[in-house]
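[#protein-structures] MJ: dropping MFS transporter here for a structure pass
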Amino acid sequence: MRTSASRSAASPQEHTRRVAAATFVGTAIEWYDFNIYGAAAALIFAPQFFPNINPVAATLAAFGTFAVGFLARPIGGIVFGHFGDRLGRKQTLVVSLMLMGIGTFLIALLPTYAQIGIAAPILLVVLRFVQGLGVGGEWGGAVLMAMEHAPEGQRGYYSSFPQMGLPAGTLLSNLVFLGVSLSLGQEQFAAWGWRIPFVLSAVLVVVALVVRLRLAESPEFARTRQRGRVRRLPALDVLRNNPGTVILGMGITLAPSGLGYLLSVYLLSYGTGTVHVPQVTMLLTITAGSVVYLVVAYLTGRVSDRVGAVQIFTVASVLSVLVPFAVFGLMDTGAVPAVLLAMLAMGLVLGLLVAVQAIIVSRAFTTDVRYTGASMSYQFGAVLGGGLTPLLAAAILGATGSSMWVAAYIAGLALLSGIAVWFLPREAGTETDPGASLTGGAGDEPVRDGAPA
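AK: finished. structure tokens for MFS transporter:
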């Protein structure tokens, strides 16, 4: 492991590239952890942890445990945002990664309902909550590390790297699930093989920790701390001074999150359970969609600083209103080429949306409250747009019998995101007005470097 001296010896450009790579790798591993749970919820958890209820109710219960992770994410965003704005971005990233890894590894060891009864689903919910806390703190820190290290004129590009970790994590989780299921066969995979992807998480987390510990703190946060501009209660300041910005940031998050979990979770369950596409076929087509998602996100990040993040997001939002109807129309044919085309279309719109989402939301907040404000916006929006999508989609399909109503729900989320992006502040600047309170109470003294949290 390199020392602080060796880090400082690196050129600014080299360190910026190192930060981009580290945020990409770490975020990919965090989302690998988060998404293998989603795949397991779609394929395994209903019979393993909820065996005594009918299949539809068991599926809803399994997706309910998936949603628990999203309910924990805003709490993680607020807690880690507080310390990220108080103590620094780097430390919180390391802790959030460890928390996520511990929760995922313990799921691998969890006994089933047949072994310990009702304690099994209860413990599953607890560990999913721990996962949610970890990933709730991950996004804001990774995005800000990448963006705040980036040179002017390239912030959109560098902030897209942690965003690319989302499809990379989905891709990796699907490849691991596919490889394990093909190697063991369906029966053994359902019995115990599903635990292997969770065990592998422990190895991946160690790799990500080594990479992240080599990074320097965000230079923007370091300057804010040196000036004594660190806030004592950033969450309170955000809610007091920027409630509209948080709500609009949540709105922007609805479409990327809803479409993302439609691709990575719900369509896997819908394709195998309703349309009766073979499990391997669904995993392969979702993997292909994730590749397109990753490539498009990279290319979009490359051009975002020239074309404009808001303009790209607006076009992607319009496409996102139309694409869900085409996706379910193709899926309902059950034909493999049509299913593949549906997944590729999903990957295209997701790549456009997600690549610019981070820079749009993050720059709406000043440096001194940016971790908290961006995390709250993203995580609360993810609860409404992503965490509830598999659950609501299954409920809508059960109530109406038509996938077009599910498509209409997703299109509604996209419409709201397309409206919100035009009202969000474009650039909040570096710090809050020097006359504003820095401690959560009028007239208090600003918190100085090194003050306790």
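MJ: nice. The radius of gyration is 21 Å.
AK: one more thing. The chain is about 80% helix and 0% strand.
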